[in-house]
Specification:
about 450 residues; alpha+beta; two-stranded parallel ribbon; 18 strands; about 20% helix
Length: about 450
Amino acid sequence: MNSEEEFYDAETGLESDDSCEVSFKDALVFDSKRAKPENGVWERRKTLPAEMISRNDFSVWSILKKCIGMELSKIAMPVVFNEPLSFLQRISEYMEHAHLIHKVCSLSDSIDRMQVVAAFAVSAVASQWERTGKPFNPLLGETYELTREDEGYRLISEQVSHHPPVSAFHAQSLKQEFEFHGSIYPKLKFWGKSVEAEPKGTMTLELLKHKETYTWTNPMCCVHNIILGKLWIEQYGTVEIVNHSTGDKCVLNFKPCGMFGKELHKVEGHIQDKSKKKHRVIYGKWTECMYSVDPKVYEAHKKSDKKTGEDSKKLKREHSSQSEEADEMLEVQETVTVIPGSALLWRIAPRPANSAQMYNFTSFAMTLNELEPGMERLLAPTDCRLRPDVRAMENGDIDSSSTEKERLEEKQRASRRERSMDEEEWSTRWFQLGTNPHTEAEDWLYTGGYFDRNYTDCPNVY
């Protein structure tokens, strides 16, 4: 949704041609009664059918007090704590900044490409900012298809396992420029005042033109103040992006907020070649923007800034409550300090004005469950858009959503019991368990064929 956003090459001499011609002959086009804008792209909705359901009358503690240290995937949560998207739709938000992948494909230098891949990896988690609702757990066999002609890609995902819950996805360029895929096993744990999410699984980006493959894992995510106070989110941990073709590596540190919040949202790291020579320093915030700068310039700035910042930091500490714990922190409002000579790699798009009333969705997320006229007859019957409990919640009908959620969960349990009695194994439709050839780790790989539109063997999940 941010195709107008450009990659600014400031003083680095990077190519800044943002054009990406795409052939859409194989793309899925839906009939629509909406008027087409001048550029021929369907105008997508900018709001949800109903505002966010109030959670004021519901006690999280009454549900979670017996669950400290347990995995939340095994606990049935009331629908009111959800947001009206399936987790399969949520992971498709990795593609919100797909223009960055197109930019990567256009660059001739491997270090320049790594810079933008790093920005893409950071942008993939940006939509989680202030998103405190829990997505619906996908049903076994559930799928989600996303075709974006204007962004030049299409994506298919499938829930390939229920215990443990594993979601697999595969996105491909409509012009055969790239493939982006992965399988995610989210582990959620409740720790008393916070919920920690560990997104196990590997992201793989293949640049077909350059014959390069990049892999990385996502950072940890934590939602604080689950019981009392203002909910807030932090991402933390080390993300290592490897170019398996050149040996280049980018190491990104998503910093924990710390006692006084001075590190909240910050991301810092560097790019090095196979001989471990540093070429660029990457810095910024996953909620705002990412920059790159020469390592020598960065170190010089860091030294000069250290002394000048000591007095102001001391003053801030004196005015801060020494007893304040990190879990009680509110979000720090500040922007990234730009080092002279830096290149802007990525900047987050503004959220719509009504985002706070719409589960803090981005403009991109607002469109993910939309059913355009004519779409239903072309989608697989397992597609999330056809899921009744998610649709009811989106329409503001919490009672119907809760009833449908319970019905679908019981149907899933009954199917599992039936397979167990018949000693049958679940058979996935579009992905199969294999080995990622680049990491040599177990991975779910797309077998192809979804866009042939043959859905006769799809399970009845709804």
